[in-house]
Amino acid sequence: MPLTDSIFAFQIDKTDGKARTGVLRTAHGEVATPVFMPCGTYGAVKGITPDQLHDAGVQMVLANAYHLMLRPGAETVAEMGGLHKMMAWDSPILTDSGGFQVFSLPALRKVSDDGVVFQSHINGDTVELTPETCMDVQAKLGADIIMQLDECPPADAPKEHVAEAVRRSAAWAGRCKAALEKNGAGSLFGIQQGGVFLDLRARSAEALVELDLPGYAVGGLSVGEGHEKMKAVLEHIDGQFPREKPRYLMGVGEPRDIIAAVACGIDMFDCVLPTRNGRNAQAFTWSGRVKLRNSAFAGDTRPLDENCNCYTCRNFSRATLRHYFQAGEMLAATLVTIHNLAFFSQLTSEIRRAIADGELEARSRKWGEQMYSD
């Protein structure tokens, strides 16, 4: 079984207010933070090779334990030599527990304090996911960072429902820690819940901090609450979690959300936004989004972003990319995905530089004006 050695450390190098730069050390290498992780949900980042990921500046990727557990199966991945071998990816991997995916299928699942019983969306089989089986699956996958099983309530859930999810998630975090300590695989992050209710967020954080975990994630945001409500929750994070531990904001990828979250003390991010939008003819640039299906780009000979040195921007014009999308050429999605991931790598690199220079607030204001002028 390819259990990843639990080599894990986090070092803060520079601070600017609550924001910080640092280094995350794992068995598969070091990661400069703040960092953005693209999603390789099924064990592959859609439409792009591992070499292209490295060339785009990607340091770390996310894979999803829920999907890999159902297909091809954690045992099969282990027999392949683990997720790193299967993906041909030699850098760090974080696996999401699958809790979000399970709870997004309310008609197909039943939850109790023991865990979740759900129907596979692939073949309808009944599957039980408990904190213990969740840890076993992720250990077999061989991830560097492992996420606890949590209950993620919908954005419009009443406070009583959210409070129950906070209680259950805290109990599950303790069981996950106990299960993982038996095999010494990976490094476990707890997941804070609580919706937009600040008292529940504080209660959730307190319970997780008592477990003294290697890192902590903020879950249950970017589910429809909006930018301002997200910021209101994140403004309290620095006082809720230990400053020496990494903090991970799950499922957030809008550039303005990343910038605001870093200012609140967040170190890690993941989202499908750059890859999904890339497949749908939308490119992220320092001047805002470029929607390539727009006829205005039919004769545009400029690169996607004149400040970008990625493979796509060095070789292809907006007009060419638009033509590829219009013609149904599959290369189009790959090229814009390469650019989008390079942009997110550049964005987090510039954020790190701004923190080191003590100018994050001023530069963030400038970036926001450039990217969201409309």
Keywords:
374 residues, alpha/beta, TIM Barrel, 2 domains
Identify the overall geometry: globular
Structural class by SSE content: alpha/beta
- Look at the structure and give the mean pLDDT: 95
Outline the low-pLDDT stretches: none
- How would a crystallographer describe the biggest sheet? 8 strands, parallel
Helix content: 40-55%
Question: How many beta-strand segments?
Answer: 16
Query: How many DSSP helices?
Result: 16
Strand content: 15-25%
Largest sheet strand order: 4-14-13-12-11-10-6-5
- Just name the CATH architecture of the largest domain: Alpha-Beta Barrel
CATH class of the largest domain: Alpha Beta
C-alpha Rg (nearest Å):
20 Å
CATH topology of the largest domain: TIM Barrel
Distance between the termini: 52 Å
- The tally of domains stands at 2
Superfamily at the CATH H level of the largest domain? Queuine tRNA-ribosyltransferase-like
